[in-house]
Amino acid sequence: MTIQEQYKTRVRELLSSGTVKMVIGYKAGTTADRRRPLFIRTPEEADQLLLDSACIANLSGYLIAEGLLSDEKRVGIFLKPDGIRTINILAAEAQLNIEQIIVLGFDITGQEVTALQGETAGDFSALIESIKEGAPEALKNPLIDQLEQLNPKERFAYWQAEFSRCIKCYACRQACPMCYCRRCIVDCNQPQWVNTSSHTLGNFEWNIVRAFHLSGRCVGCGNCDRACPVNIPLRLINARMAQEVLGSFDHLAGMSDTQEPVLASFKKDDSETFIL
Amino acid sequence: MSEPFEPKIIAFVCTYCTYAGADLAGTSRLKYAPNVRIIRLPCTGRISPMFILKALQKGADGVLVSGCHPGDCHFTHGNYHARRRWTVFRALLEFTGIPLDRVKFSWISAAEGAKFAEFMNSVTEDIRKLGPFDQYKELIKETEAPATL
Amino acid sequence: MTRILLSDKLDNCVARWRKAGLTVIGPVKKETFSSYAVVEKAAEFDLGLVLPDRSIKGLFFPQTEPMLEYTIKKQAIDTKDFAPPSDKRIIFGARPCDASGLAIDDPLFGWDYKDEYWFQRRNETVIVSIACTRADDFCMCTSLKLAPDSTKGSDVLLRPLQNNKGWLVQELTDRGREAFSQIADLLQEGSEPAAPTVVVAEKFNLDACVAWLQNPANFDSSFWKEISMRCIGCASCTFLCPTCHCFDFQDEGDTYSGIRRKNWDSCSFALFTMHTSGHNPRATQSARWRQRIMHKFNYFPGKFSVNSCSGCGRCSRQCPVDMGITETLQAISTLKP
């Protein structure tokens, strides 16, 4: 039985036994390489389910849709390791009750999809531990290294060219499961804190603010990067920030549902060589 | 002849230590560079990195941020939180090419009037040497110009 | 016999137009992203693109544009208007859907108040469209009763030759004739056949959709909630759309001076309809998606007798969750009106 069929059976079981009220998964999209989010509420709807190496979107943002979890019923969701880390963060930040989430874990290597054993986010802690061990290597990116070789002026020029394209559609924000603020800082308009204008100056502001708010929270799922209609390489900034919190504070986001957020905690002996 | 460049510097300081330090510098009649405009906030923990960005965006050539020494925070650990944030924010500025030598951080207590005056002077001199923050000024100019296409 | 523009003459044409003071614009692909951009040489064009990622809209209705500058003094308020640019431009290689999009928005920008920022640019810009010989899975102009070679909104339509060496020239407006008179000697007479335009299958029955949308009972249909469940509420569909035209005014500055700007806005944003009181008449994403569809295919045609969609398919092509107008209208066309 393929992993897709295994999971279809599992989803039908979960729904028909009433364990979950809904399962969030993937179905076919407009073209052969596209997948759409799928909300499965009846065992029959599970027929549409698809699970393959194109199922890369992190679906966990749907869990915090208004009202979904407020009836305290459980919801099942297809998650890769980055998605599991995401729900850990959401739980740690009190956005959801991790008990309500049944994880249908899977991972993709190349074209191959493998099932991950476990049912709740906590069951994957060993896996996440190993991700942390490999993180310094995994976060490496030749483009980041290249950019860091440049002098600040050249780096500024690089980002100026990238950000100048930004149209402030906020797809990066909306696609990000971590961007759940009821009122985003850019929507605070009495007065308007961050200007809505998408001139390059304003685009710098928005993109820096976005990256800062995700520092130590981003799991690198790539939703923002894929959502960007003007193809700004947002993953680079996010990955650079993840390197920073890992290097400076030994923090990898989403280790557990009780992990303290890196910017809401401190150590008295945190390094401060830059403070005069 | 154009006028010699005088940097515009914005200082975000906490009211309990650095601002009191500035007061002490004043009552001690210490002279320091007039280029720095001080903005007083309750705690360094209240100084959002967005303030720093906003200052640069509004035409500042440099920004400095200062508060109580570790352990001295009026709110016990506001400055510890701030310190982490600054670490991350500096990495972000560096990666996006915003020169780090325009954004300075320090701890200045209420008793350090002399350190305050000296710090203002040294930062002003450093920024004067760097010259105006042209990269951002160009972007600001762009926002004030009519659409090109 | 028709007039033909050969591709190897294109560079001369660009030079000629530039010499005549025209800003030459066309589809350009830079690394991972394509848009209509200013060029100096024909080699910069990428005429093989199905569509540039960004629509033509921004060249007529920029994402942000200063309107006026204000200074508040003790006794007076000074204001200075920003005039729209008056440069003459030629857009070479626009897609017919993009050009149609402009024609669709013309009545809107000229309805009660004539938007000089739009019309100044419209009047100063020659649009040379190239009929499509390629399409992708998202193209849907035929479903909107347009075509890969529709002339709507264009000043000149070029049809690629079958031998791929140039285009048949069809001048449509005086503006187009004038721009092409400057390159008249670079054109030649010929009888080469044009390549067939691409066949874009009709994806939905527009009339059936419109009938359903016009039925007031369907306004509160549960369909809206179902279809938009995965919508994440970003504005990429509206911002990439060649006909979406909503904007917002923002004063950037302080109490003493600043600039009033006109910025793109989107009905996808919750803030778009948020009242000062905190009440939001379009409180849910489904209500916002309904608005977008209703506006395009019910309200807008009700006022201007034309659908506010030119079928470019960018909304679906770029949607992070693979939604879009096509899917919604396909679903609607199967419903009972």
Tell me what you see in this structure.
- The complex is a heterotrimer of chains A (276), B (149) and C (337).
- In chain A, 37% of the residues lie in helices and 11% in strands.
- Chain A has helices at residues 3-16, 81-92, 125-138, 142-149, 152-163, 171-175, 200-214, 223-227, 234-249, and strands at residues 22-28, 35-40, 75-79, 101-109, 112-115.
- In chain A, α7 packs across α9 (234-249).
- Chain A is globular, with a radius of gyration of 20 Å.
- Chain B has a single domain (9-144), classed as Rossmann fold.
- In chain B, 45% of the residues lie in helices and 15% in strands.
- Chain B has a four-stranded parallel beta sheet with strand order 2-1-3-4, sandwiched between helices.
- Chain C has ten helices and twelve strands.
- In chain C, the strands form two sheets. Chain C has an eight-stranded mixed beta sheet.
- In chain C, α5 (206-214) packs across α10.
- The longest helix of chain C is centred in the last third of the chain and has 20 residues, at 285-304.
- Chain C is globular, with a radius of gyration of 22 Å.
- The termini of chain C are far apart.
- The relative contact order of chain C is 0.16.
- Chain A binds chain B through residues 144, 147-148, 150, 152-160, 185, 193-194, 197, 199-202, 204-205, 207-209, 211-212, 215-216, 237, 240-241, 244-245, 248-249, 262-268, 270-272, 274-276, and chain B through 49-50, 53-54, 57, 70-71, 77, 80-81, 83-100, 104-107, 119, 135-136, 139-140, 142-143.
Task: Output the keywords.
heterotrimer; B: 149 residues; alpha/beta; Rossmann fold; 4-stranded parallel β-sheet; 4 strands; C: 337 residues; alpha+beta; 2 domains; 10 helices; globular
